[in-house]
Amino acid sequence: MLLTEVSNNRAGSDLSRRLLLVFCTLILVACQIGALCAAEPQEQIGVVLLHGKTSRPEQHIGMLIGPLKHEHYLVEVPEMPWSYRRYLTADYDTALTEIDRAVEKLKRRGATRIIVAGHSMGANAALAYAATRRNVAGAILLAPGHFPDLLASRFAPDVATAKEMVRSGHGGKSACFHDVNQGTMLMPCTKAAVYVSYFDPEGLGAMSKTASQLSSQIPLLYVVGKQDIHFSDGPSIFEKAPHNPLSRYVVVDAGHIDTPSAAISEVTSWLHSLQASEP
């Protein structure tokens, strides 16, 4: 009877030791996983969506808000100085500063990588922002619009007048100048300095120039519709950007206005490819 009790006690002691060893091992593994997670926080992509000229934040580019949130991307959709309500009320530099604020909002919400995306004039600004900032992990251009460099002759008289007003110290005075939006002529009345900032063929609005200034570390998704009146201009701009293995030029069966909705799957697929790549 005594031998049986001793044997049972030894067996119980061995089992306790084994259980303790397993428990300690689990604690060690949990600590290692915790340390790894602390050292390498989970990546969170934030996307700034920029609307088109005389548009609203929820229009056209807004078609991407739901799909992006469904894929768990953080999204900011600021109203820019070329909206229907704010049409040319602030210069291009100020517009980029407003994008800075949207980026900061995304970072406060937990974004670790920033993508700037735009439709039409918003695409123009997305490229300019990516070319002049260091906090961008990628740029998405959907049916880019506003080409002061490609349409320089059309705007030359107005740009010359506005520049002369600036040189003579009257850049803060307003006048009415020409603009065009998808073939429709517009006549905005704005400050001369503001007009120059958007329509100078050597300025921030010149996509052929800003594309060449893009860092080779920033991938570019360029999407254009077959029915877009600027369909043929896309390759010349895209090809000026430095090569990046993740950059893509995509043609969709759409016009200018409906390119964002036609490109939803292309956008989400491209973002997934960025997530799979090392930052």
Question: What characteristics describe this protein?
Answer:
10 helices; 279 residues; two-stranded antiparallel sheet; Rossmann fold; alpha/beta; 45% helix
Please tell me about this protein's structure.
The protein folds into two domains: 1-40; 45-144 and 206-276, Alpha/Beta hydrolase fold, catalytic domain (Rossmann fold), CATH 3.40.50. Helices cover 45% and strands 16% of the residues. It is built from ten helices and ten strands. The strands form three sheets. A six-stranded parallel β-sheet has the order 2-1-3-4-9-10, with helices on both faces. A two-stranded antiparallel ribbon has the order 5-8. Helix 5 runs antiparallel to helix 6. It is globular. Mean pLDDT is 89; it is low at 1-8, 26-31 and 35-40.
The CATH architecture of the largest domain can be given as 3-Layer(aba) Sandwich
CATH topology of the largest domain: Rossmann fold
- The helix/strand class is alpha/beta
Distance between the termini: 69 Å
Q: Output the CATH homologous superfamily of the largest domain.
A: Alpha/Beta hydrolase fold, catalytic domain
Number of domains: 2
How do the strands and helices of this protein lay out in sequence?
Elements: H1 2-39, E1 45-50, H2 65-70, E2 74-76, H3 92-108, E3 113-119, H4 121-132, E4 138-142, H5 152-167, E5 174-176, E6 179-181, E7 184-186, E8 189-191, H6 192-199, H7 207-212, E9 220-225, H8 234-238, E10 248-252, H9 259-262, H10 264-276
Parallel strand pairs: 1-2, 1-3, 3-4, 4-9, 9-10
Antiparallel strand pairs: 5-8, 6-7
Helix pairs in contact: 5-6
